[in-house]
Amino acid sequence: MQRLIPVLNNDHVPLHLISVINTLLTATKEISHLLHQGSLAGTLGSTLEENIQGETQKKLDVVSNQLIKNMLLETNLVHAVASEEEDFVVMGNPDAKYLVAFDPLDGSSNIDINGSVGTIFSILEKPDHPAEGTELFLQTGDEQIAAGYILYGPSTMLVLTTGKGVRMFTLDHTVGEFLLTVEQVKIPEDTKEFAINMSNRRFWTDPMERYIADLLSGAEGVRKKNFNMRWNAAMVSDVHRVLSRGGIFAYPADCRNPDKPCKLRLMYEANPMSFLVEQAGGRSSTGYERIMSLQPTDIHERVSVVMGSRNEVDICLDYFKKFK
Ligand code: AHG
Ligand code: MN
Ligand code: MN
Ligand code: MN
Fold first, then answer.
1. 109 marked as part of a ligand binding site
2. Residue 313 C-alpha to ligand 1 middle, in angstroms?
3. 154-181 confidence digits (pLDDT tens)
4. Domain map of the chain by residue range?
5. Cα torsion at 290, 294, 300, 301 (round to 10°)?
6. Model pTM?
7. Mean pLDDT of 25-48
8. Check: complex ipTM more than 0.85
9. Ligand 1 environment, Cβ below 6 A
10. Which cofactor does it need (predicted)?
11. Options 3.40.50.20, 3.40.50.720, 3.40.190.80, 3.40.50.300; which CATH number does 193-322 get?
């Protein structure tokens, strides 16, 4: 089985970019080890702190953030980083060109139940025009030069795109290397599986409510087929299922909290996942617009998400057109 670096070399990925990705992976191997050790590592449970989004930080949110941030900045190849767990952009080498946005630990609520969690990352280049701090990152998803996630499940996997399709690698713990296990990821165009937090149903907007109601109506209903539902409560592991066997994943806007109608973050959750999904032949939208075309206004901005199997997402988007 091929190791990561020769695979990226074959794809003509620039050496410095390979080095950035590899450094990030070194940090994630450490996170994988901590997760594996569970209570024995003393890193489960919560801190007394909140992040800028008002979420109580888990110890592993903080530890993972420190590991990834410090290792990336030490390479001297990174100009700046943006993280879910950092209020503001953190500057690195002024002469370096790479920008890395990341969600150090995705699915934090799964940490203490020994469930699957992940790390998500998105890599951009410093823009041509003069920019500082937050401004550096305010680029559309289409500007990403690489994106991926690490899934810490029963095995630890890397799912990566540099714009030439999507590959899956599995961490071989005996040698500490990610080995190529899926050469070309293709999301089936049709599906009978959906992923959404149904407990928010009463807060959804009309299009989402009607779309899911039709899925639930089963073989006797308008869709004429029975749908199954799965929800792991970690975007990495829910989207991994979609990339592996198809499906539709949605975290739509809702009216629970009028100040924050959306849950998922554009820069380090929705954009990198959209890049992967589109590169694997799927679709990704807010319901009204393609996610990777959105012009961001803040590193922590939130967005409505519908992504996955192309034909199913298209059907869902018809509801957004019809019931606006
Ligand atoms: P994070 O743990 O990085 O804050 O992200 C959590 C997100 C995402 O991973 C997942 O899809 C969603 O929150 C789960 O939301 P619910 O708690 O509503 O299920
Ligand atoms: Mn969080
Ligand atoms: Mn997350
Ligand atoms: Mn997180």
1. yes
2. 21
3. 999 999 999 999 999 999 999 999 999 9
4. 4-184, 193-322
5. -80
6. 0.98
7. 94
8. yes
9. 55, 84, 103, 106-109, 197, 233-235, 238, 251, 263
10. Mg(2+)
11. 3.40.190.80
